Predict the structure.
Amino acid sequence: MTIECPTPRHEDEVVLLGHGAGGRLTSELLDRLILPAVDGGPGPLEDAALLPGYRELVISTDSFVVSPLFFPGGDIGSLAVHGTVNDLAMRGARPLALTLSLIVEEGLPLAELGAVMDSLGKAAREVGVPVVTGDTKVVGRGAADRLFVNTTGVGQRHGSLHPSAALARPGDAVLLSGPIGLHGTTVLSTREGLGFESDIASDTRPLHRLVAALAPLGAAVHTLRDPTRGGLAAALNEIARDSRVAVEIEEAAVPVPQAVAGACDLLGLDPLTVANEGCMVAFVDVDAAAGALAALRSLPEGAQAVRIGEVLPQGPAGRVTMRTLVGARRIVDMPLGEQLPRIC
């Protein structure tokens, strides 16, 4: 008698937390169900899209479900503004307007909602982007977790600055505007009471001024991406895939704060896969790398900008590798699913 193993089912065909993590499960969900339903065509999935019929205008939308609502360095209100402004900036755009939608759970203290709104309004004013329209819904207890926020942004691109995830080229320098891992480890530590938040704080902040500083370099700036869900590993893999290039980074060059490294060691996490909300990775023409670094370092939010790697002249398309501290090479994979749920 022959016994055959049943064909594995896709986790019983239900949505998993990992489907929202920005890794391979997210790509599967998009390719299988979401993009076909909305006639999504081939091509890179950018942080923001060109508005049809208006070549220099871009649009982006995002929903924020972070838990807890408040954490060292930020809260769901400021995070919502920064996240959408940054998605516009990654397409080379300055923000023009935001929309705001709230889903509020019955029982949320009005004082907490007021604090979130005060922070959101302050963040929008500091960026200089008006909130022009929105919507508010209240759902019953248990139908949501306290407060969810959705923001949509419209922006206008800077001159000849037209970055895309599909435009990285062999020979490009890979730049990083600041340290990684701060946001994800801060939110997790605060939620679980781990104590690391006494040493670190989220890096949530807007990046549009950094992008404006790069604008004079124009077409020499090929790709911009803020490594949020899935961290730096996901961002580099997406760029390598969409540009069909091989990318290599230097472990010694990637800035990982000591407190982040300690938290990741204790929790079994890779800092490369931990979410960030206040840094960006840039692929620029090698001849423009020094000027790009100088432009980033001229602003406080880019003071710790560094060069972390390059696009290899040749190599397997879509592969990301890292030269380790001992001189070996290891493949940096696209994260599979959710390591740190509810961090944005």
Notes: Helices lie at 24-37, 76-89, 110-127, 182-192, 208-214, 231-243, 258-267, 289-297. The chain has a mean pLDDT of 92. Residues 125 and 131 are 9 Å apart (CA to CA).
